[in-house]
Amino acid sequence: MCLAFAICAAISLGGCRKHDFPVYARNYREFAYVTNSGSNTVTALDIVNLRQDRVIAVGRRPVGIAANPARNEVYAVNADSGSVSVIDTTRNEVAATIAVDRLPYSIDVARDGRTAYVANSGANNVSIIDLDKRHVTATIGVGEAPGVARVAPDGSAIVVSNERSGSVSVVDPKLERVRAFFTGCPAATAVTMLPDSTKALVACSGGHQVMVIGLARTAVEERADDAQAHGVLGWALFKSGRPGLAATELQRAQALNAADPLYRRQLAEVRRALEQVE
């Protein structure tokens, strides 16, 4: 198991006692990885034995880092090298280096572990990486100085904060193009998403505010014949207390993809709620 970043601390006036720590199997390992931009390295921390495991040489000025949720790999973004170092966490060594564009800053990995997205702040674009083949498959133009690219938990969207242009780009990973663009977020920085992928929240550090984007609605407007888009929107409407509108969207999702049992189950729950209201 690997973690892209973790902070562990034990503070006790009486000190640390042996029985305060869990018991692990002899061969169990768990690591945290920290980029060291001043020394062009990544430090692997053994968080089971609470010690440094090793220091791994990567590219020039590593900044962003992310762990693969499906395989034992960590990816370090090297800003001055324009590359991504692939770290094999079973050996804690660099297994490959993938070239991207100018001044990459952050990276995020899809839930299935097969695709990564890199925000290239010096090139105003996002690189899509095929992690199986270890190369860039597409480059998508976004706003000025993109700092963070985050993929939705369900993989339906990539939200990119563009710091210099004070904007947010929403990218469709299937079509590999921007499907929505929002201004009015000065010095856009951090991005997070709700677990159900219905909304993204972007920190507008220059305006002391947070922008909230309805991802489900923008997806339906852009992809009217996409069952997943209608399904996500329908379930979000149901959870927000609007079962009538939810039923319409879920019926559309079921019509577009009758083989998926999820829409049938969700629609049945929505109809039960409507019957109770009547």
Written overview of the protein:
The protein has helices at 215-222, 227-239, 243-256, 261-277, and strands at 2-3, 31-36, 41-46, 51-57, 62-67, 73-78, 83-88, 93-99, 104-109, 115-120, 125-130, 135-141, 146-151, 158-162, 167-172, 177-183, 188-193, 199-204, 209-214. It has 278 residues and is α+β, with helices and mostly antiparallel strands. The protein has 2 domains: 2-215, 7 Propeller (Methylamine Dehydrogenase, Chain H); 227-277, no CATH class. Strands 1-2-3-4 form a 4-stranded mixed beta sheet, with no helix packed on it. The longest helix is centred in the C-terminal third of the chain and has 17 residues, at 261-277.
The topology string of helices and strands comes to EEEEEEEEEEEEEEEEEEEHHHH
Number of domains: 2
Q: Give the number of DSSP strands.
A: 19
- CATH architecture type of the largest domain: 7 Propeller
Mean pLDDT: 88
Show unreliable segments: 6-15
Helix segment tally = 4
**Highest-level CATH class of the largest domain:** Mainly Beta
- N→C terminal distance: 50 Å
Question: Gyration radius, to the nearest Å?
Answer: 21 Å
Strand order of the largest sheet: 1-2-3-4
Share in β-strands: 35-45%
Shape: globular
> Share of helix among residues?
10-25%
CATH superfamily of the largest domain: YVTN repeat-like/Quinoprotein amine dehydrogenase
List the keywords.
278 residues; alpha+beta; Methylamine Dehydrogenase, Chain H; 4-stranded mixed β-sheet; 4 helices; 19 strands; 41% strand
Brief description of this entry?
With 278 residues, the chain is α+β, with helices and mostly antiparallel strands.
